Amino acid sequence: MIKTIVVGPLGKMGRLITQVAAESAELELVAGVGPQGRTYIGGDLGQMTFGRTLAVPIVDDLAEVIDSCDVIIDFSTKEMGLDVLRLAQAHHKALVCGTTGFTPEEKALFREASENIPVLYAANTSKLVNVMNKLLQLTTAVIGEETDIEIVEMHDRWKKDAPSGTAKEMGEVIAHELGGELTNLAVYGREGVGGRTPGTIGYHSLRMGDTPSSHTVFFGGFGERLEISHHSTDWRGFAKGACDCAIFLAQQEPGYYSVTDVLQL
């Protein structure tokens, strides 16, 4: 059994990851880690997340429990995520991180840590989203230079970062296939007067109500367009993907991995 710690267990993703991990024949939950000062600290991880006693504690200090685990799954906040990364590296623990909102400089810290520990950073752990990324790579290779590419993503009103980490990851797949970098090709929203700059990747972020996660990439030609979309109706697929990543990562040598490695895409 792979001994597992879930960081941010009472978040939207953390709750589902905890439940999926508890049902797994390969993962054994040993602790949950929440922010300091929360009323649920000291409670039972299962009772606090999905109403079933697991006899597994929730603590507010990862350092107290980190030596009991093989792998950490972190879907918390970017601030907490950097502390988790530091401790994982210091204690030589495998880390699956699905937290978004990191700057390029902060993302670089995960790559640096991967020289010493197995690290899997994924803006989206859904199997279908990662299949979509493969489709985007293939599509861009064939028609990317002859079409206008636009990415539209929708999330609920509580989503903090825009564009979403998933949308940025999609843009990076496209940009690299075009032989460039997303930072040089991305255009975020439009206003004013002027034509579209050829070769750019347009981004549009919608935030409203309780809208589920939705991503569509448009490849606009003349007289026709191609749309590739992913729509989520709940988050369990993302949680299952995160647990699959943890199972995979616990068996790897130090290195920087992605969901494509897990799925062998």
UniProtKB/TrEMBL annotation:
<keyword id="KW-0560">Oxidoreductase</keyword>
<keyword id="KW-0521">NADP</keyword>
<dbReference type="GO" id="GO:0005829">
    <property type="term" value="C:cytosol"/>
</dbReference>
<feature type="active site" description="Proton donor/acceptor">
    <location>
        <position position="155"/>
    </location>
</feature>
<dbReference type="InterPro" id="IPR022664">
    <property type="entry name" value="DapB_N_CS"/>
</dbReference>
<dbReference type="InterPro" id="IPR000846">
    <property type="entry name" value="DapB_N"/>
</dbReference>
<dbReference type="GO" id="GO:0051287">
    <property type="term" value="F:NAD binding"/>
</dbReference>
<dbReference type="Pfam" id="PF05173">
    <property type="entry name" value="DapB_C"/>
</dbReference>
<comment type="pathway">
    <text>Amino-acid biosynthesis; L-lysine biosynthesis via DAP pathway; (S)-tetrahydrodipicolinate from L-aspartate: step 4/4.</text>
</comment>
<dbReference type="GO" id="GO:0019877">
    <property type="term" value="P:diaminopimelate biosynthetic process"/>
</dbReference>
<dbReference type="GO" id="GO:0050661">
    <property type="term" value="F:NADP binding"/>
</dbReference>
<comment type="function">
    <text>Catalyzes the conversion of 4-hydroxy-tetrahydrodipicolinate (HTPA) to tetrahydrodipicolinate.</text>
</comment>
<dbReference type="InterPro" id="IPR036291">
    <property type="entry name" value="NAD(P)-bd_dom_sf"/>
</dbReference>
<comment type="subunit">
    <text>Homotetramer.</text>
</comment>
<dbReference type="GO" id="GO:0016726">
    <property type="term" value="F:oxidoreductase activity, acting on CH or CH2 groups, NAD or NADP as acceptor"/>
</dbReference>
<comment type="similarity">
    <text>Belongs to the DapB family.</text>
</comment>
<keyword id="KW-0963">Cytoplasm</keyword>
<feature type="binding site">
    <location>
        <begin position="165"/>
        <end position="166"/>
    </location>
    <ligand>
        <name>(S)-2,3,4,5-tetrahydrodipicolinate</name>
    </ligand>
</feature>
<dbReference type="GO" id="GO:0009089">
    <property type="term" value="P:lysine biosynthetic process via diaminopimelate"/>
</dbReference>
<keyword id="KW-0520">NAD</keyword>
<dbReference type="InterPro" id="IPR023940">
    <property type="entry name" value="DHDPR_bac"/>
</dbReference>
<feature type="domain" description="Dihydrodipicolinate reductase N-terminal">
    <location>
        <begin position="2"/>
        <end position="124"/>
    </location>
</feature>
<feature type="binding site">
    <location>
        <begin position="122"/>
        <end position="125"/>
    </location>
    <ligand>
        <name>NAD(+)</name>
    </ligand>
</feature>
<keyword id="KW-0220">Diaminopimelate biosynthesis</keyword>
<keyword id="KW-0028">Amino-acid biosynthesis</keyword>
<dbReference type="Pfam" id="PF01113">
    <property type="entry name" value="DapB_N"/>
</dbReference>
<feature type="active site" description="Proton donor">
    <location>
        <position position="159"/>
    </location>
</feature>
<feature type="binding site">
    <location>
        <begin position="98"/>
        <end position="100"/>
    </location>
    <ligand>
        <name>NAD(+)</name>
    </ligand>
</feature>
<dbReference type="GO" id="GO:0008839">
    <property type="term" value="F:4-hydroxy-tetrahydrodipicolinate reductase"/>
</dbReference>
<feature type="binding site">
    <location>
        <begin position="8"/>
        <end position="13"/>
    </location>
    <ligand>
        <name>NAD(+)</name>
    </ligand>
</feature>
<feature type="domain" description="Dihydrodipicolinate reductase C-terminal">
    <location>
        <begin position="129"/>
        <end position="263"/>
    </location>
</feature>
<keyword id="KW-0457">Lysine biosynthesis</keyword>
<dbReference type="InterPro" id="IPR022663">
    <property type="entry name" value="DapB_C"/>
</dbReference>
<protein>
    <recommendedName>
        <fullName>4-hydroxy-tetrahydrodipicolinate reductase</fullName>
        <ecNumber>1.17.1.8</ecNumber>
    </recommendedName>
</protein>
